[in-house]
Amino acid sequence: MLIPRAPSPDWEEPAVKKFINDPADVVAEALAGLAAAHPELRVDAAEQYIARADAPRSGKVALVSGGGSGHEPLHGGFVGPGMLDAACPGEIFTSPVPDQILAATKAVDGGAGVVHIVKNYTGDVMNFQLAAEMAADENVAVETVLVDDDVAVEDSTWTAGRRGTGATLLVEKIAGARAEEGGKLAEVAAIGREVNTNSASFAYALTAVTTPAAGRPGFDLPDDEIEAGVGIHGEPGRRREKLRPANDLVAAALDAILEAKPLTASDEVIVLVNGLGGTPLIELYLVYGTLAKLLEARGITIARRLVGNYVTSLDMAGLSITLTKATDEFLRLWDAPVSTPGLRWGA
Amino acid sequence: MLIPRAPSPDWEEPAVKKFINDPADVVAEALAGLAAAHPELRVDAAEQYIARADAPRSGKVALVSGGGSGHEPLHGGFVGPGMLDAACPGEIFTSPVPDQILAATKAVDGGAGVVHIVKNYTGDVMNFQLAAEMAADENVAVETVLVDDDVAVEDSTWTAGRRGTGATLLVEKIAGARAEEGGKLAEVAAIGREVNTNSASFAYALTAVTTPAAGRPGFDLPDDEIEAGVGIHGEPGRRREKLRPANDLVAAALDAILEAKPLTASDEVIVLVNGLGGTPLIELYLVYGTLAKLLEARGITIARRLVGNYVTSLDMAGLSITLTKATDEFLRLWDAPVSTPGLRWGA
Amino acid sequence: MEVDLAIAWLRAAADSVAASAGELTRLDAAIGDGDHGVNMNRGFTAVIAALDAGTFDSVGDVFVKAGTTLISKVGGASGPLYGSAFRALGKALPAGPSVTVPELAAGLRAGLDAVRKLGGAEPGDATLVDAYQPAVDAFKGDDLAAAAEEAARAAEEGARATAGLRARKGRASYLGERSVGHQDPGATSTALIFRALTAITAK
Amino acid sequence: MEVDLAIAWLRAAADSVAASAGELTRLDAAIGDGDHGVNMNRGFTAVIAALDAGTFDSVGDVFVKAGTTLISKVGGASGPLYGSAFRALGKALPAGPSVTVPELAAGLRAGLDAVRKLGGAEPGDATLVDAYQPAVDAFKGDDLAAAAEEAARAAEEGARATAGLRARKGRASYLGERSVGHQDPGATSTALIFRALTAITAK
Ligand SMILES: Nc1ncnc2c1ncn2[C@@H]1O[C@H](COP(=O)(O)OP(=O)(O)O)[C@@H](O)[C@H]1O
Ligand SMILES: Nc1ncnc2c1ncn2[C@@H]1O[C@H](COP(=O)(O)OP(=O)(O)O)[C@@H](O)[C@H]1O
Ligand SMILES: [Mg+2]
Ligand SMILES: [Mg+2]
Ligand SMILES: [Mg+2]
Ligand SMILES: [Mg+2]
Question: How far is Cα C167 from Cα C19, in angstroms, rounded to an integer?
Fold first, then answer.
C-alpha cells in the first residue's frame, strides 16, 4: 500500500467547526469581506491582492508582502500608509502564486522599484522568486528581503533554514516607514534586512491549529503537553514538553532567543508578544509582564513593545516572543505614523 | 447528598492549559503586564484599577467601566483619551467589587461627575450600585448607564434582563467622545443610554470557554453543535443548534436582531463583527462580507464598521454581531479621535 | 451564641466552602459562568484573615466584619448578596459578647430581607433565597443546636429543590427552561453555611 | 506518446490525486502544514480545466500548459516544483503530435533537473525527488507500458523509503529527527502521478 493507513479511522469526514461556507471559498469570501470593511483599501478579487487605494504612489518605493492566509492581520491588515503597499494572500497556509505576486507588484510600482518581503518558507521563497523574475522581465526593479527570525529552527544546511515569523511585522513597519519618507529601493531593502538580522523569535503552542480544509487539529497534543518552537503553520515544533508555568516558559524562550542573538546590558530592544490566535489577551499581558521583569534583570531596556494577535496561526492557542535589537533609526521609523487595519498610530 | 455527583469523575484535577502561573494570580499578573506595556496608563495594583495617566482631568466628565476579566481588550484596553477614564477589572468573569469601583471613581473624578458604564449582569449591577451609593456619600455625582443589548435573552420579568455585550464598546466610544468634547454629566449619560437603546447584538459559540479556575470547558458541545445566543461568560445560549454554513448563521442572527430592534430601508447603522477570542480574523471578515450583503439587500447602509476581537470571552471560538442604528451625532462622535491600547484612530 | 462561637461558625463555613469549591464551580459552570466556588472560597478565606487580624467584643461586629469583607473581596452576584446578608445580620443583633437564639433568628431574617431587597428574588426563582428562606423559617426555639439542625435540613432540602425550578434571577435565568434540572450553586453554598453551624453546635 | 495519451495521463493523475487528497493532507499534517492534498487537487483540477479549454497539436504543449497552470494555481512548495517539472518536460520534448518513449524519458529527466535546480534538494533529503529520481532512472526502453510500470514501482518504493529518512528540505526539515518515521507527502503524490500513467498504458 502506497499510502499508510491513517491512525484515526474517521479522518475523512471531519465536522469543520468554523464560521465558513465551503472550505474552498474561505479566502475569497474573507477577501470580499475585507474589501467591504475597508474602503481605504483596494482589493483586486480576480488577481487576489490587497493594495492601498492610492497606489501606485509615484516615486515611492513600494512594499509587497504575502504568504499563506490564516495569519491575519498579517499581511493584508498591514496594508496602508506607513507600511505595505500591497499584500498577496495565498490559500490557507499556502504561499501565493507568482501571477498574483506579479500583478500586485506591477499595480503598486510607482517607478521607484518594489521590495518583496518574504517569510523564509520553501514555497514562499520559490513563488516570490518566480514572480521577481517575471517582474524583471517587465522591467520592474525588485529587491527581496527574506525574514528568518525563528530561532527554534536550526539554521543549517540540514534544514530549509529559519522560518519567518513575528519579525515580519517589524520588518514591514520599519521598512514601510523608510519607504514612506522617501527611502530609495536599496535603502528600504537594507533597513528591512537589518531589522531581520537584529530579530529573533520563539513560539509555543498549547493546541494544534485546525485548517478549514483538514477540519481537525493538525496534530494531537496531550492535555499536559505543549509544542516548544512551533511554527505558524501548525508545523510541529522543536520538541514536545510538559506544560509548565508561564514564568518558566517565558524564561526558556528568552534563553533560546538570547543564545541565538545575544544581547548585552544597555542594549535597547523592541518587543513583540504575539498571540497565535487562540490565546486570550490576558495571557499575553501576563507573559509580557514576566518578560519585562526578566529583561530588566539583565539590564536590557524595552524601548518599544507591542502585545496582541498580529502574526497568527488561525485558532492555535499559543504565542511567540520576538526581540529586535533596536537602533535609533529603528525607533524613529517605528514611531512614524502608520495607518492600516491592523496597526495604527500617529495618523 | 447535598451536592449531586459530577458527570465526569475527574472534574477536580484538570490540567489548566494556559500561559499562566497560579490561576488565582492571573488578573493581578496580567495587570502588572499591562502596566509595564502601557506607560500612558496608570495602573493601581493595590486598588486594582486602570486609569488614564493624566486623570483626573479637571472639569471633564469621567467615564468608569468595569466587569469581570476575560473580555479583553474590554474594558482596560479602552482606557485613554476619547474613551474611558478608568476601568475596574474583576476576577475572571466576576464583577469588580464596590471598593475598587469607588477608588477608581474618586481617582478620575475631575469635579464634573462620573458616568458608570455597567453591563447588565446581576453581579455587575449590584456592585456598581453599592459603589455609586458609597460615592454619593463622598459627594461624587455618579450617573449609571446600563448596557443590555443582547437580544438572545428575553427581556422579561422572568429573567435578569438582557445582557450587556458588544454594544458596550459603542457606548464607551461615543459617550467617551462626548465627554472629551466637554459634555455635561447628564449629556454624556444620555448619549450613552441612547446608543444602548439603538443597539442589538446576537452571538454564537462554536466551543465553550475555559476559565483558568475551572481548567476545562464550561460545557460540552458536540462536534457538530453550536450555542446560539451565547453570553460572553460562557453562559450556555438560547438554544443548541446543528452547525450550519456561515451564511445561514449570519442571516439568522440578523433576523433575531431586527426582530428585537427593527430597522427600515434608508437607516444607517454602525456594525461590529466581534470575535469572542478563539475565532480567527479571516472568519470574522468572511462573516462581515455576508452581513454587508444582507444589509445591502434590505437597503440598510453601513455607515461605520469594526471587525475584530473587542469584547471577548477568553478562548471561546465564537462571534457576536452588533448593529447600532446611527444618528449623525453618533457618527460624529464615533469618528472623533480615540487613543487607547485597543482602539485608536485620529490621534 | 458568643463571639467565639460566631467566629467558629464562620471558620467551619470557610472550611466547608473550601472543600466544596470545585463542586460549587461545577454547578455554576452548568448554568452560569463557573466561578461560584472560586468566588466563595476567595471570600471566606478573606473573612477568616480579617477575623484573625481583629479582636471582637460583640457578636454583631463579627458578622458585620464578615459581611463587609465579602462585599469588598468577592464581587459577582454572590459577593454583595452574602456580604449584605452578614452585614444585616450583624447590625440587627444587640451589641454585646453574647446573643440569644431568638435574637440570632431575628438577625438571620434581617439578612434574608437584605438579600431579597438587593437582589429582588422571590422564593421559587431558583436562587440562594430558596435555601435561605426555609432555613430562616426553620431556625426556631431556644436551643441553638436544634435550631441549627432544623435550619440546615431545610436549607439542604430547599437547595436540592432548586433543581426542579426554572431560574428567574441571576445568570441561570438566561437559560429559561434549560435551567430546569440543575441545582442552584448559591442555594447550595447557603446550605453548606447552615450545615457548618451544626458541626460546631451539635452535642 | 500522443497528445491524447498525454491528456489522458494528466486526467488519470488528477483523478488519483482527487481520490487521495485526504490522505496526502493527512501525511502533510503529520510533518508539515496539512495542505498538500488540497494543493495538488486544486492544481490538477485547474490543469484539467485548462486542457479542456484548449486544443493541442503538440505533446510538449500539453505539458507546458499543465506546468504553467500548476505554477499559477497551486502556490506552496509543490506548485512551483511540479509546475516547473511539467514545464521543463514539455519544453524538452520535440514539437509534434507524438513523441517516442526515449524522448519522453529525456523529458522526464529534464523535469527532474528543473525540480532539483529550483528546490535544491538532493536524493535522500526526503522530498518528492526521492520518488521522482528513481522513477526517471527506471523509465527505460521503448515500451511505454513497461517503462511506466517500472517507473511507478520505483517511485512507490522511493516514496515509501522516505519514511526512513530525516527531512532536510521543505517544512518537514524543521522537525529534524522527529521527521523520521513519516512518509513524505510530495514523494507520495509523485508516485501517484507515475502510477496514473500505468493505468492508461497497461495492456
Ligand atoms: N438576584 C438574585 N437574588 C438572589 N440570589 C441571586 C441573585 N442572582 C444570583 N443569585 C445567586 O448567586 C449565585 C451565583 O453566584 P456567583 O456565581 O458567585 O456570581 P455570578 O453569577 O456573578 O458569577 C446563584 O447561584 C444564585 O444563587
Ligand atoms: N526544496 C524542495 N525540493 C523538492 N521538494 C520539496 C522541497 N520542499 C518541499 N518539497 C516537497 O513539497 C512537499 C510539500 O508540498 P506542499 O505541502 O504542497 O507545500 P508546502 O510545504 O508549501 O505546504 C513536500 O512533501 C516535499 O515533497
Ligand atoms: Mg502549505
Ligand atoms: Mg461570575
Ligand atoms: Mg458564577
Ligand atoms: Mg504543505
Answer: 26
Residue of A286, A309, A312, A338 best to disrupt the B interface, most CBs of B under 10 A: A286
User: CA quadruple B44, B48, B52, B55: dihedral positive or negative?
Assistant: negative
Angle at B226 between CA B220 and CA B230, to 5 degrees: 90
Fold of A24-197: Rossmann fold (3.40.50)
**Residue boundaries of the structural domains of chain A:** 24-197, 199-340
Domain residue limits, chain D: 3-201
Average pLDDT over residues D135-152: 98
C177 against C198, higher pLDDT: C198
In a 13 Å sphere around the CA of A260, the CA atoms on its Cβ side amount to 25
Task: Using alpha carbons, select from D8, D25, D17, D70 the residue that is nearest to residue D43.
Answer: D70
What is the reported pLDDT for B11? 46
Give A90→chain D minimum CA distance, Å.
7
Q: Which atom of ligand 2 is nearest to the CA of D120?
A: 1
Q: How many CB atoms lie within 10 A of CB D123?
A: 14
CATH of domain C3-201: 1.25.40.340
* Cell numbers that stand for A78 in this block: 498591514
If pLDDT is split at 50, 70 and 90, which confidence band does A11 have? very low
Q: Which of D198, D191, D106, D73 is nearest to D148 (CA)?
A: D198
Q: Average pLDDT over chain A, rounded to whole?
A: 94
Residue B75 appears among annotated catalytic residues: no
Can you give the pTM of this predicted structure?
A: 0.95
Mutating to test ligand 2, I would choose from D41, D74, D171, D182 the residue with most ligand atoms within 8 A of its C-beta, which is D171
The CATH classification number of B199-340 equals 3.30.1180.20
The percent of residues in chain C predicted with pLDDT above 90, rounded, is 90
D118 touches chain A (CB under 8 A): yes
Average pLDDT over residues D35-61: 97
Which of C26, C34, C191 faces B2 most closely, judged by CB atoms? C191
Give the pLDDT confidence of A283-331 residue by residue, as tens digits.
999 999 999 999 999 999 999 999 999 999 999 999 999 999 999 999 9
Q: How far is CA C74 from CA B194, C37, D139, in A?
A: 32, 11, 77
**DSSP state, C127?**
S
Report ipTM for this prediction: 0.94
d(CA D130, CA D110): 16
Kindly report the nearest CA distance between residue D165 and chain A, in angstroms. Answer: 12
Is A207 an 8 Å CB contact of chain B?
Answer: yes
Instruction: Please list, in sequence order, all residues whose beta carbon lies within 8 angstroms of the beta carbon of residue D203, skipping any fewer than 6 positions away.
Output: D145
- Give the closest residue to B93 by CA, choosing from B254, B223, B273, B214: B214
Secondary element (H or E) of residue A89? strand A86-92
